[in-house]
Amino acid sequence: MEPAEIIRRDAVERRRDVLERLGAERDMWVSTAHPDHGPHQVPLWFLWDGQAVWMCTSAGSATARNVREEPRVRLALPDSFDVVLLQGEAERHPPREVPKDAADAFAGKFGWDPRTEEAPFVYLRVAPRTVRAWRGEPELRGRVVMRDGVWLAAAQA
Predict the structure, then answer these.
(1) What are the phi and psi torsion angles at 148 (to 5°)?
(2) Distance (Å, rounded) from C-alpha 44 to C-alpha 54?
(3) What are the C-alpha distances in Å from 100 to residues 20, 73, 95, 103?
(4) pTM for this structure?
(5) Judging by beta carbons within 10 Å of its beta carbon (0-12, 13-18, 19+), is residue 36 exposed, middle or buried?
(6) β-bridge mates for residue 74, sequence order
(7) In whole angstroms, how far apart are CA 126 and each of 50, 72, 88, 118, 136?
(8) How confident is the model at residue 41 (pLDDT cuts 50, 70, 90)?
(9) What count of other Cβ atoms lies within 10 Å of the Cβ of residue 114?
(10) Distance between CA 132 and CA 84 in Å, rounded?
(11) Residue 3 CB neighbour total at 10 angstroms
């Protein structure tokens, strides 16, 4: 298999590509950690609302328990060539406290509405503080496209 030629993108192109993928993809790897039990990683469905990632998991899951103790999380789209990594703090929301537009959009995207389940679920909302994006070694330099919750290419976009 021949490696694909990598054309280095500028910050504006990377930001555009990240936002496009956040709007289109279904799955995201969620990494959490518990002070006593260590790291935990799981794939979850997600919705990008333009500002934050919304996910849903069982209220008793390790992910839900971990973010209660340590809200800092790392998120990753599932592609090792076109890498997108997000960092932020997860906010826990019981279904009755989730904004209706976010819960409706989540249900519409996946055809599943956690608000109708008998078992308790919790929504997790993560507004990214840092986003890194790169395709191969040529793009490692300049891979930070969001810092402190601000897109670095915002002025040009």
Answers:
(1) 55, 35
(2) 10
(3) 24, 24, 9, 5
(4) 0.92
(5) exposed
(6) 31, 87
(7) 11, 9, 6, 25, 26
(8) very high
(9) 20
(10) 6
(11) 7
String of DSSP letters for 63-119: HHHHHHH--EEEEE-S-SSEEEEEEEEEEEE-GGGS-HHHHHHHHHHHT--GGG-SS
Rounded distance between C-alpha atoms, residue 156 and residue 6, angstroms: 23
Average pLDDT over residues 18-26: 97
The Cα–Cα gap between 64 and 90 comes to 10
Q: What is the pLDDT of residues 112-136, one digit of tens each?
A: 999 999 999 999 999 999 999 999 8
The DSSP letter of residue 49 is: -
- 39 strand-pairing partners: 33
User: Are the beta carbons of 129 and 149 closer than 8 angstroms?
Assistant: yes
Q: Which amino acid belongs to residue 40?
A: H
